[in-house]
């Protein structure tokens, strides 16, 4: 595994430019942005007295040795740990496709620092579900029944659906929604099983899913483990 982390931040859309400026100030020049939405139900939003807002997902590569410093700065400077502000997670990177890819993704950041943590030691998981459009509620109801706290939705379009239908006998729509759920590693299996049972290939959602290891999270107190547990 490389000594890099993929940092994913999910913040309010009106704060997107401020976060990009933050990353630039810390020498992180290559940042990818996608519009997305949260999965909070209308009844929950009404109860909390807040309005549903568009989100932006920001993704960038950082050296593993710098992740704690950068996440700490996100809390101190951007207030990402304040309720409703956003979340950030880091995912260990297995490999990079050559020097040109590394140069593009890192653009001058120091990549020679030592690795910090083995992938098997990561305390959280990012569950990614890809499903037919219009089934987010079905997926999130299943996930919440197994302890998930919430998620983020990105609209997408699938390719190769004709071939998939031909070889696997599945009816899959081209319009997709990707649901990102951050969970404790100990809860991952139950959440994934619930989604597969209630929103899997035999349901209207026709969901497929996978999980990635997450090293660190900030801004999601309902999921975050006590610091001593993450260092155990």
List key phrases describing it.
about 230 residues; about 30% helix; 9-stranded antiparallel sheet; alpha+beta; 8 helices
Protein model, in words:
It is a single chain. The chain has 232 residues and is α+β, with helices and mostly antiparallel strands. 32% of the residues lie in helices and 29% in strands. It has eight helices and nine strands. A nine-stranded antiparallel sheet has the order 8-5-7-6-2-3-1-4-9. Helix 5 packs across helix 7. The model is unreliable at 44-51 (pLDDT under 50).
Give the SSE map.
Elements: E1 4-12, H1 16-25, E2 32-38, H2 42-48, E3 54-63, H3 67-78, E4 86-92, H4 98-106, E5 124-132, H5 136-145, E6 152-157, H6 161-168, E7 175-184, H7 185-199, E8 208-214, E9 216-218, H8 227-230
Antiparallel strand pairs: 1-3, 1-4, 2-3, 2-6, 4-9, 5-7, 5-8, 6-7
Helix pairs in contact: 5-7
What's this, in brief?
Helices cover 32% and strands 29% of the residues.
- What is the count of DSSP helices, taking H or I runs of 4+ residues? 8
What does the largest sheet look like? Answer: 9 strands, antiparallel
User: What is the succession of H and E elements?
Assistant: EHEHEHEHEHEHEHEEH
Roughly what percent helix?
25-40%
Distance between the termini: 21 Å
């Amino acid at each position: 595994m490389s000594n890099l982390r993929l940092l994913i931040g999910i913040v309010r859309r009106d704060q997107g430019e401020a976060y990009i400026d933050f990353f630039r100030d810390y020498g992180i020049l290559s940042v990818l942005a996608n519009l997305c939405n949260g999965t909070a139900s209308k009844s929950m939003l009404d109860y909390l007295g807040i309005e549903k807002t568009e989100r932006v997902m920001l993704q960038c590569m950082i050296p593993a040795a710098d992740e704690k410093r950068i996440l700490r700065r996100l809390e101190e400077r951007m207030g990402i740990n304040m309720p409703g502000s956003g979340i950030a997670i880091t995912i260990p990177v297995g490999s990079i496709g050559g020097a040109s890819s590394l140069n593009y993704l890192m653009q001058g950041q120091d990549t020679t620092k030592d690795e910090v943590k083995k992938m098997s030691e990561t305390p959280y998981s990012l569950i990614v579900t890809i499903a037919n459009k219009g089934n987010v509620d079905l997926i999130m109801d299943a996930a919440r029944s197994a302890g998930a706290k919430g998620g983020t939705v990105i609209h997408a379009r699938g390719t190769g659906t004709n071939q998939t239908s031909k070889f696997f006998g599945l009816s899959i729509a081209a319009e997709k929604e990707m649901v990102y759920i951050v969970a404790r590693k100990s809860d991952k299996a139950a959440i994934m099983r619930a989604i597969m049972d209630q929103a899997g290939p035999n349901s209207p959602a026709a969901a497929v899913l996978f999980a990635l290891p997450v090293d660190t999270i900030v801004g999601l107190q309902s999921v975050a483990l006590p610091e001593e547990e993450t260092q155990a």
